[in-house]
Amino acid sequence: MSVQETVPEHGLTVRARHRRNPYDYLFDGDGLDALLLDLGRKRAASIHRHHTADPSAAPLGTYPRAAMGFVLLDPTAGPWTPNEAAVLGVITIGEDAHRFLPNAAAKAAGHRRLGRNYGEAVLVDTHLCGSAGFRYGHSAEVRGQIVGASSQSPDQDLFEAGQLARDFVEAVTAAHRAWEERVGPGDWLAADDAPHQEYIDMVSFFSPVSAPA
Q: What values do phi and psi take at 119, rounded to 5?
């Protein structure tokens, strides 16, 4: 597993890599990386368009940088999972993007901890940030999918994070529906249609009472 890369016609390099794959019944590792790369291309086109736009034709304002970093969290990870292990994947746009990834990660982690936009804590509830917290928002959550993004203004970061979260949710949903049509009825989101060992272990202490002889 390595970082995947593409350079669209506008010239902004897109790089992507997954860390955690909670959808291996839909995508193998290469497939998930390909999805992240494709979604990164869409964000790269948006970033290029907004960065080169005339201010009079930029409703969100002209983007100050032709680069962004994105961190997507795994929406299936339990709250006990450490933040570094709950990262689903990372996308960078442009050659100057890597330095913004810790910022994006901090926003996503703050959102996960608080259950809401980290920007609210930064601007309103600063007592929730704590030592070593990042001093800027925002973060986005769409139907449980949290994304942190960084390099533009806070509002521009929020817009791009929200678009990526929406696109990811829609892509996974479409893949899931196609999988359902392909495999037909069943009980489990697994190739063998069998319960995961975790669920078996949860009830392994309980043995049925033997019928009297």
A: -60, -30
